[in-house]
């Protein structure tokens, strides 16, 4: 799960100063970015107007893409620090390899959760024999300061808890929802859930008023708190909500993302999350010239070189531009 921009922007975010303390309906449009050789993603976070939702700091939506006659996702080994990656699929498979020796094929509605801690590297690719369609989301969670140095590790959970209501099935990806708790390790109060709504469903999902939330549309026609949210777009909802009205005009797939507003101000550049320019620059240098990030064994190809740092120092500021 990588930011493959060769001229990536520095994203400065975090802190409570820009959290919207009341319910809002802020529709975020995506930026289209190439991921590897043949996959284009719609990037929702970081966004020009909104940088984080709780500890969620990076959200890409891709597909559904017809890759029957294509290699599909091909992301060479690349590094991460200071974050967790969440791989979530609706269609297709992704083969994950990392420098801890993990090897796993992630399939639809399975959680691939990689904690970079102090340093990790990994690759992602569609298997040589793969399904026709590829459709999913790739997300990052910022690690709080006291956990940024944990040992890197990978978790693959194939059986996740669900919350159901008439016409609604919610799979709990990370954190907890209505008493159902994901087996994935979380380091901040957080929730991520996949919502499947049947056509004609009208439902109200209980929420924590202390969390801020957003909803990503994966497929279908749905209204979130009265706002139509098209696939590949995301509605930021702010804080202070005890429930969320949902209505599906067709079968629809959504992702609910939320959590306590992230206290710390962070710097996010390329595939690193740090707290200062110097920390990010050191991570880049060590990816290029040391063995800090280990080796991804079994990937057929070279690892990804880091782009050049911008000519000005990266500084943590707030959650929005």
UniProtKB/TrEMBL annotation:
Pfam families: Pirin, Pirin_C. Its cofactor is Fe cation. It comes from the Bacteria. GO terms for molecular function: metal ion binding. InterPro entries: Pirin, Pirin_C_dom, Pirin_N_dom, RmlC-like_jellyroll, RmlC_Cupin_sf. Residues 41-141 form the Pirin N-terminal domain. Fe cation binds at residues 78, 80, 122, 124. Binds 1 Fe cation per subunit. The keyword Disulfide bond does not apply. Residues 298-321 are annotated as: Disordered. Residues 193-290 form the Pirin C-terminal domain. Keywords: Iron, Metal-binding. The keyword Transcription regulation does not apply. Belongs to the pirin family. This is Pirin family protein.
